[in-house]
Design brief:
By secondary structure, the protein is of the alpha+beta class. The chain has 22 helices and 17 strands. The protein has helices at about 1-20, 40-50, 110-115, 120-125, 130-135, 160-180, 185-210, 215-230, 245, 260-265, 270-280, 340-350, 360-365, 380-395, 425-430, 440-460, 465-475, 480-535, 540-580, 585-620, 630, 635-645; strands at about 25-30, 55-60, 75-80, 95-100, 145-150, 240, 250, 295-305, 310-315, 320, 325-330, 355, 370-375, 405-410, 420-425, 435-440, 645-650. Helix 17 crosses helix 20 and helix 18 (about 480-535) packs antiparallel against helix 19 (about 540-580). The longest helix has about 60 residues, at about 480-535. The chain is extended. It starts with a helix and ends in a 16-residue tail after the last strand.
Amino acid sequence: MEDNASRALQTLRNLRQQYASTPFLALGQTVWWDEPMKAVLTVLLRRAGVNGAFVLGVHDTDYFAKLHTRLPGEARFSLLPHNDGTTRDLWSAAGEIAQLFGSECFPTRHDLTRSGTPLRALAAHAGVDLQEFLNQHTAAWGWRGLVYTGSRDTVVCELKLSDILPGIRSMLEYGFNNTVAAIETRDVARQAQLYANDLMESACECCTKQPEATLTTLYRHMYPRMFRLLLGDECPEYQVTSTSELLRFGPDTAGLPRFRLLDVFLRPDTRAIAEEAYNDAVAGSEMYALPKFGLGALPFDLVVPGIGRGTLRVTLRAVHIEMPEPRRIRTVRPVQDAKTLAAVLREHFGRDVILVGKAVTLISMLASEFIFVFNEEGSAYVTRTRHMNDFLQSHGVRVAVHPVLRLHYRTWDSAAGVATEVRLPEPMRGPFAASSMSMDRFGRVWRQVVEDQKRLLDSLAAVRSPRRLLEIFCERSPGQWRCPARRHSDLTQRLVALAEEWGKLQAVARRLYAELREARLEIARIEKERGQHFRSVAEWTPEHIARREALGAELARLHERRRVVQQQLRTNQLQRVAWGRQPDIQQLRAERRKIQLEAEQARLELVRDALLTARGLPHADHRPSAWWLPFVDPSGGWFRRVVDTAEVYVQPLVSGEVSDGSHVEAP
């Protein structure tokens, strides 16, 4: 771990040597998740002894939340779980929270069916429809997203605190209260409750004192507060900004480096290349290429305070903003640079607007003036941004951007040494074979548990026989499954014994089907011979007539035989169906089927728990909710070990622009 620490410090020294005065930017949509973990960088910069201007930013120009399903009820805000059913498409980056060990990772329907789980049969057995069944069994554990039901198009910086306070309070109560309840060491739980109360009071006080302010105000207030929770007295004073402030677009800001990329998309000599670069970068993703937005579309959105947000389109004689109520601004001459566009928008709206790059372009916009700081797994768009930038560079368009700095945490490993006892989540009790344990033990065994659950998933996916599935459960829990497995075997043997009569009927059916095939072949052969004979006769002699009559008689006999066999098959089929409908047979089958479905339900629960453990824990390891650490370890030891074990690496936004050997992108 000392090697990791020294490498991290050397990487920061090299980065600062290359970019002597560029500030770091920690930009995030919510303070309640992993964004405050970037306080790790504050400590590392101090240890490295380098100048580290660090700006905290609230990304408040995106939509607050999105959910395509309409929700019943009158509440303006709903706290929802994420699953592969009703809330499959839920997106709530600015209003999400997770209790200790929770994450947004959820088992998908595909995951469950891959493991052999008969979802429809289990839903029918439970007496619920498939959607409700999926809602229940694919839900992420310990995570909730706050959704604004008033509108799907509400931007974060437009939400007033007076409106959102009830939703914020319910969200924090869910995360804080459930985490405190999971802490079994009393002194630690009491301190965690004090932290929870303090954070809740600070948030609510901000909302009540400034009811007409927006959610941006609350997050800008709480962001440094969360840093102080981690850093204590060593927390420096931070500049706190927001994208609505950074990306204010007007005649006085249009010349800033952050809007140079906009110029590239507007200038006649580079526009076609820029559009091709963007479209090539988003190809194969869920993001739309520019033609999907309409003629003249650019990869930028315009946020007009009080009006809304929409894609920007610039055509030969107009500027269009595709808001819920589209705006069209006629222009005297073509808009071909950022300053002209800013002047047109200022004249039309009478004030500055906010110009936000879509996911791929936003990173390049701000990376022109800042070194972006991302946690591991944060922002999945970096690779596509670099693809766009490389395309531009290869076509002669220079892209001046700073690299991204990534922070890789070993959150759970660093918990080794924390004596606090915690209650494990229900889905993790089976995998860990415990209902509670110390964080010290958890930190030492969690990686092995994750690997064990991955192997379990592979083994369960290979099981297709109910008998084999019951054998596995007998090995895992003999006290629970030995009797059902024996009963299943007994029922199977009784059905096999009773099936002797059915076997005889089936043998008759096979014989009759063989006779039917033979009769059909003979009919085809005789009809062919009869046709050939007819065509070969030039003069019908008594011998030819006799031959034709003989062939006709043979055909009639074969057709009659076919009819008889078909009738016998229908009778046989009715006999087989009647055998299967005998009450004693049906009862035996139903009882055996019940045991099989109980085993399948147990498999479903095993698979669900294994997925929540094997995927959720690594995700939370990289992106933990920052407040978990002081709640569980008020001494600060857990956070200090996270700092000591953190890895730092640089991710270039233009290939080949990292000059120092320590500046490498993680594989």
